[in-house]
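As the next step, I needed to go through one protein, both as residues and as discrete backbone shape codes, included below for the reader:
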Amino acid sequence: MTTTHPIVAVLGTGIIGAPVARNLSRHGVTVRAWNRTASKAAALAVDGVQPAATPAEAVDGAGVVLTVLTDGPRVLATMEAAAPKLAPGTVWVQLSTVGEAVDELARFAAEHDLVFVDAPVQGTRQPAEAGKLVVMAAGPQPARATVQPLFDAIAARTVWVAEDGAGGAASRLKLVLNTWVIALTHGTGEALALADRLGVDPQHFLDVVSGGPMDSGFFQAKSAAILAGDFSTSFSVDNSAKDARLVLAAAERVGVTLDATEAGHRRFQRAAVQGHGAEDMAAGYFASFTD
């Protein structure tokens, strides 16, 4: 049985957006892509993706719009630019990490009669390229038949958390997950920094952790990056600082003190000042050294 997909507009073709567009195209979806840096969208033409010059051009005639941008204000500005060509009833799937800006996005969707699906993703460059992201989704039941095949093309699994995308349940879950990611990143970096200055062989540290209850794929990936000095960007220090800031803002609103996340935010900021802002979040490691 052949599945007919709607035309999909992907707005934002960075580290996550580009592989999302490619994987959709590889699954037979007609994809139009826009990026603020036009060359990034144009580079996807070899994968069958149609580059668009403007957000409005990308969404014209599309049944589904995916936004994969840095933060809430950029998502909103891009959708405002697309608004003249957004047809009522278009399904808008926001994949970005926007924190509590999700409320403003939901209002925009309601004002333009869009079907809003809040669906931030967990994963960085490698799982995005492999189509192994995890989608956390909240949206109305009627839209799920449309978007689930698209999620299946870009993700290993989808976790549906609510039937109302406007409630922001998925974006708030993403804040909780990012709190854990920040702790793992800095825990790994600080342990290896201390090992370095104490003269401890880092391989001994890895040998103790590996295969035990403290092990994880994330720990293995970030420790390997630090020890190899390879900070090729899967998710940048600058974006990690942004995510930490979103977590802290939400925590302050609900009266929760997150000391470790606050310290993690400062570490990302310090690493950025040291010149590591565009490098992988594992480069938060350098914040341990002031000499």
